[in-house]
Amino acid sequence: SEIRRAAAMSVFGMLNWFYMWNTRQDAKGRAAYAKTVAQMTMGGVRNIRRS
Asked: Are the C-beta atoms of 27 and 34 separated by less than 8 Å?
């Protein structure tokens, strides 16, 4: 469906552009960001947990 495609493209966009606007992150920072995106994707913005 169109909404699923839009959601998938949004996730890819968040992940693919991370390096452009967050250039100072190391592997640990990138992993933390990936975890945040995964939590948001699976449970919405309210599901993001602070670590």
From this structure: no
Phi-psi region of 41 (alpha: psi -120 to 50; beta: other; left: phi over 0): alpha
What percentage of the chain has pLDDT greater than the value 70? 90
Per DSSP, the residues of the chain read -HHHHHHHHHHHHHHHTHHHH-TT--HHHHHHHHHHHHHHHHH-GGG----
Cβ neighbours of residue 34 closer than 8 Å, sequence gap 6 or more: 15
Angle at 44 between CA 7 and CA 3, to 5 degrees: 25
pTM: 0.64
